[in-house]
Write the structure tokens for this entry.
Amino acid sequence: MDREKGAEAGFGLHPRLAADTIPVGELGLSRVLLMDNRLFPWLVLVPRRAGAVELHRLDPADRALLVEEMARAAGALEALFPCDKVNLGALGNLVPQLHVHVIARRHDDPAWPGPVWGSGHAEPYPAGEGQAVAGRVAAWLGCGRSD
């Protein structure tokens, strides 16, 4: 078994991430998810590493790959959605599984200039719209759909 497949063994998506997102696809390291909140173009990258909790605890190769995938995700959001800033965050206080938020922000969005999480501003995508957005992001990233 190669190193990558061995590292993925036992990987599962935290139930809260699964409940709050729409699958986009798979990159070399990360599962890419779209947060089900149409108010903000918002991706979540989840490294497929069982037990991963902290960015600094990833092995150096995985850590470097995650940073590259964060940059790709930010580039996708900039290319597909008008934005003034891209926020990156890895908090993990409610969901301990390592995951990185990549969020396109605009000066006129409802949570600006504060963080989007905990802002009270959330609106799920209408039926089919979230899947369409996820498809556009997957096509831009060139990643296979994970649903």
